[in-house]
Amino acid sequence: MHDHEDGHHHDHDHQCGHDHDHSHDNHYSDMQARVKALETLLTEKGLIDPAAIDAIVETYETKVGPRNGAQVVAKAWSDPEFAEWLRRDATAAIASLGFTGRQGEHMRAVFNTPETHNLVVCTLCSCYPWSVLGLPPVWYKAPAYRSRAVIDPRGVLAEFGTVLPAEKKIRVWDSTAELRYLVIPERPTRTDGMSEAALADLVSRDAMIGTALATKPEATV
User: Which of 49, 120, 125, 202 is 20 to 30 Å apart from 174, CA to CA?
Assistant: First the structure.
C-alpha cells in the first residue's frame, strides 16, 4: 500500500501478480494480444467497425462498468450500518451486493471527508477494482498518471478539473494485485430523501478513483 499525504513518498512493498490482466506500459498481456489480434482480423474482413468497438469500450468504461461501484457508494450514503461494514470489511460488504473480484483480491473502501480527499493509483502496473468499476480508463495505466499521482497529486487533480482547498489533505493509495481500493466520495448536499438509484446516478467512475467529486444533483437534471 502506498499511503501518504500530498507529495510525501513512503517506500512500500508492491507485490503485483503477473498472472492477471495488466498493461505494463506498451506491452500487451497474452489476453490483450489475443483480443487485439482478433479485432484486427475481424476489421480486415469487414465484419466490425473500429469506431463501434471504441464506442462499446467507452460505454463499459464510463457507464455500464462503474454502475456496480455506484450502487456500493449509494448504499453507503443511505445505510449507516452498511457504511460501517464497508469500513470494517469492504470485501465482504461489497460481496453481499453480488460484486466479487475475478482473482479473489481484497477490497478496501476509503472515505472522503471534509478534511481528507483520497486518490487511487497503481504505481507499478494497473491493478484496478474490475468487479466494481469495470474497465480501467486508459489514463489510469499511463506512466505519467502512475508517477505524477504520487509526486504531485494536487496538481494531477487540478488537471482533471478537481481543485481542492489548500487545507484539505490528499491521501494516495497504491493498489496491488492483492488489495484494491474504492473511494467513497462525500455525499453532495441537498440529496436528502433521494433513492439509492438516484444517488447512484451522482457517482462517476472517476469519483470512485478519486480524480473527481460526486456530481451535485442539480447538475444531473
Answer: 202
Residue 15 lies in a domain: no
pLDDT reading at 171 higher than 90: yes
The cell numbers describing 139, all together, are 489514463
Per the annotation, the verdict on 96 as an active-site residue is no
Catalytic residue among 23, 29, 96, 125: 125
Domain CATH number, residue 104: 3.90.330.10
Quick one: angle between helices 67-78 and 80-88, nearest 10?
120
Question: Active site includes 175?
Answer: no
Pick the catalytic residue from 127, 131, 175, 204: 127
How far is Cα 131 from Cα 107, in angstroms, rounded to an integer?
10
Q: What is the pLDDT of residue 150?
A: 96
Give me the catalytic one of 23, 78, 126, 195.
126
From the CA atom positions of the chain, what is the Rg in Å? 18
Question: Does the active-site annotation cover 16?
Answer: no
Structural domain harbouring 206: 4-8+28-220
Q: Is 126 a catalytic residue?
A: yes
Proportion of the chain above pLDDT 90, given as a percent: 59
Question: What is the mean predicted confidence (pLDDT) over 32-39?
Answer: 73
